[in-house]
Predict the 3D structure of the following.
Amino acid sequence: NAGVMQNPRHLVRRRGQEARLRCSPMKGHSHVYWYRQLPEEGLKFMVYLQKENIIDESGMPKERFSAEFPKEGPSILRIQQVVRGDSAAYFCASSPLGQGVSGNTIYFGEGSWLTVV
Amino acid sequence: DQQVKQNSPSLSVQEGRISILNCDYTNSMFDYFLWYKKYPAEGPTFLISISSIKDKNEDGRFTVFLNKSAKHLSLHIVPSQPGDSAVYFCAAGTNAGGTSYGKLTFGQGTILTVHP
């Protein structure tokens, strides 16, 4: 999917453990977005990051979830003390433009499937 | 609060015929719209987009129509091919204050099956 790399593709965690999902954007892209898809639902926006900055985290649950996009390295979505309701597909996307992307394409990775047992 | 709705969970079409996928939205602030195709266990793949200043955009077999007064858009695929079988999501975004970014609101998806 256009070079956005996510890992792991599948992750199983027990309730109470931590989950870390990683995303490397497409080459030349410096804007990263995380989306979550719960079973039988569409994708829901979680957070938008640029390098070292969180621009919009309006879709992030207030507790246990955090995201970062450091100067070096991939973007990380971290879920602490996972619960069964966190089981979902987590998609990362990137774009070459932040401001003014109207109609621009946002490229998605292949997703990370988190299962909490 | 479902701001983008795809009311048909599934659509079945014969190969060679036209597939029409529909999407309705409620937020008047949306001013650009995209269609994505998704296979199981993969990420969404961009198909086509349209800005609110247009009412039609065409790319090969894919055409998107936008009716702003009805807050409705549709994706036409003609001719349909078996390889088009997938889940199709419409998504909408807002150019707020002259800037916008990839914060998209997605519909629930429509499963398209194209029979040979």
